[in-house]
Amino acid sequence: MGFSVETESRLTTVDVTDRIAAAVPDDCESGTCTAFVEHTTAGLVVQEDEPRIRGDLESFLRDLVPDEGHAHDQLDGNADSHLRASLIGPDVTIPVENGELALGTWQSVLLVECDGPRTRTVSTTIVGD
């Protein structure tokens, strides 16, 4: 199962927790859910969905990886996006308990867009016990 995510700016975050949770079948009491973003310039992270921490994450990635000055920029000008996404990673795996994602109180799944605006595809795989 998969879904699309529309992003609105070059470096941003989008909460996709509810869309991932919707992929858990009604008959799955326990197991694992893996979500995977099918792109090299976006990633997924488990983090608090709070505007200030989301802004801090974006600032952290901007500070860590400069916008320009990379060899790949000669090809299409988005090396910074590839490098930022490689730090985040393309997937998260979350336990399923009692038919629901077993996230902590403040945990959400955020798609981190590093080369937007774009349409992103997230696939989900559920493995039940």
Automatic annotation (TrEMBL):
Similarity section: Belongs to the UPF0047 family.
Please give the Pfam families that the UniProt record associates with this protein.
YjbQ (PF01894)
Give the NCBIfam families listed for this entry: TIGR00149_YjbQ
InterPro entries listed in its UniProt record: UPF0047_YjbQ-like, YjbQ-like_sf
Could you tell me the superkingdom of the organism this chain comes from? Archaea
Protein known as: Secondary thiamine-phosphate synthase enzyme
What organism does the UniProt record list as the source? Natrinema versiforme JCM 10478
